[in-house]
Design brief:
alpha+beta; BirA Bifunctional Protein, domain 2; eight-stranded mixed beta sheet; five-stranded mixed beta sheet; RNA-binding
RNA sequence: GUGGGCGUAGCUCAAUUGGUAGAGCCCCGGAUUGUGAUUCCGGUUGUCGCGGGUUCAAUUCCCGUCGCUCACCCCA
């Protein structure tokens, strides 16, 4: 019989890497809380319509990447492909946005049915931050500083670069889009197949093409910065001015658009050159129209999401994990098991250290081998002879100190 | 959806005129009947991804298929 394997693109996180995940997730939550953000958790499953209405009918995500299926009662449900739609749904449903400011973050798995490759999987993890009720540009800067703090805490700030752009307001985008379509239609024969397709689905993305043959054409294409209305221009100028004053390095990338339909005004990406292909580690922008579009009161909003797999690829090789202090309790013979278990309980309660009790018996030699393999700094040895004297042996596995014999009631003073 | 690379022990990998498999690591035991990591000795581990074809004989050659991986598209 064939063994059952994990679904393609869905990975197990094994003990040798889960510690990185625990560390990174813990740090991200801690930093977000430092900035006054509060965690929000929402379901992995939502009505399909939530995502088709918010992300955009013609985006790749909605057209071909969602895990969608019928519930037993006939409802169409979808595993969340991103967090913002659910966050807004939850906020509207519970009255979080009405005349209020909310600073929220979330963390968890998202699902997209794409071909897996390095840094891109079908179940992948995102950490996202969202601020509601603030127009900016001050909140834009706060959120960028928050991301910058992540990179500094994770010691990868030298590996990432902030790129920003503005898409203007919704009317600007529509006007610009028309001009862009006209321009590329006039040069239709020069376009490659991908771009011809994008001309119909998402013309803004042609500007973002990597095809070297198109670079000249793209260079001469209309620029969104030339189409901004006064308000959007003032917002973008204000953002740049604050960034300059606080000396947060950034580059303006006029080609930076975003994939999802709901973005407007400020958009930004943190990119890295360390990963060759999937170089966007963190990306976001404003989605000021989305709350109203989903049925809530008009509320400005901004946020970003980062891909944790990509983040951990950057972090793993230059982060030293602290060694946890582990104590391994060697038990010689069945008669000392009960006493040993109780001793371990008392040490855990009093000293807040990690105690591994040897289970499954074994000789002194084999138990010490397990102790060594566990990474323990100290082995405690308890046998009939020690128990008779109410003593336990302390053996130091990582430093050159002599073994000692200690009264059980005094053991707590040694850690 | 498109294209490249790869599937042999738990892991990393060998095995050419085609003759049904081997090393290191890991694990277990012993040297030390109660002292790890070092050293020495011994031992276990296989549907050669799966299915078919050619052949006296296929891990090897051919066809198909599945899986993994990297890249494109797209995205975090």
């Amino acid at each position: 019989m064939k063994n059952i394997q994990a679904i393609r693109g869905m990975n197990d996180i094994l003990p040798d890497t889960s510690r990185y995940w625990e560390m990174v997730e813990g740090l991200l939550c801690h930093v977000a809380i430092q900035y006054g953000y509060q965690e929000i958790r929402f379901p992995l499953l939502e009505f399909t319509e939530l995502f088709t209405r918010s992300i955009g009918e013609t985006t790749d995500i909605v057209e071909k990447e969602m895990y969608t299926f019928l519930d037993r009662n006939g409802d169409s449900l979808t595993l969340r492909p991103e967090g913002t739609a659910s966050c807004i749904r939850a906020g509207i449903e519970h009255g979080l946005f009405y005349n209020q400011i909310q600073r929220l973050f979330y963390c968890g798995p998202m699902f997209r049915h794409e071909r897996p490759q390095k840094g891109r999987y079908r179940q992948f993890y995102q950490f996202g931050v969202e601020a509601y009720g603030l127009f900016g540009p001050d909140i834009d800067v706060e959120i960028m500083l928050l991301a910058m703090r992540f990179w500094q805490e994770l010691k990868i700030d030298h590996k990432v670069e902030l790129q920003i752009n503005t898409l203007g307001n919704l009317e600007t985008r529509v006007k610009y889009r028309e001009q862009l379509v006209q321009y590329f239609n006039n040069n239709y024969d020069v376009l490659d197949e991908d771009s011809k397709r994008r001309l119909l689905t998402n013309p803004l993305r042609i500007v973002d093409s990597k095809n070297p043959d198109l670079q000249e054409l793209i260079k001469n294409a209309p620029k969104i910065l030339d189409y901004l209305d006064y308000e959007a221009q003032a917002h973008f100028d204000g953002l740049c001015r604050i960034l300059d004053e606080i000396k947060l390095p950034y580059v303006i990338n006029p080609r930076l658009v975003r994939g999802l339909d709901y973005y407007c005004r400020t958009v930004f990406e943190w990119v890295t050159t360390e990963i060759r292909a999937q170089n966007a580690v963190c990306a976001g922008g404003h989605y000021d129209g989305l709350v109203a579009q989903m049925g809530g009161k008009s509320t400005p909003a901004i946020g970003f999401a980062m891909g944790l797999e990509r983040l951990i690829l950057l972090v793993a090789d230059n982060l030293t994990m602290p060694n946890l202090q582990v104590i391994y309790l060697v038990l010689l013979g069945d008669d000392v098991i009960a006493e040993g278990m109780l001793l371990a309980e008392k040490i855990r309660a009093n000293n807040k250290v990690n105690v591994i009790v040897n289970c499954g018996g074994g000789s002194m030699s084999s138990q010490l081998k397990r102790a060594d393999k566990s990474g323990a700094a100290i082995a405690l040895i308890l046998g009939d002879a020690e128990l008779a004297k109410r003593e336990v042996l302390i053996k130091y596995l990582r430093e050159d100190k002599p073994q000692q014999s200690v009264k059980i009631e005094n053991i707590f003073n040694y850690f």
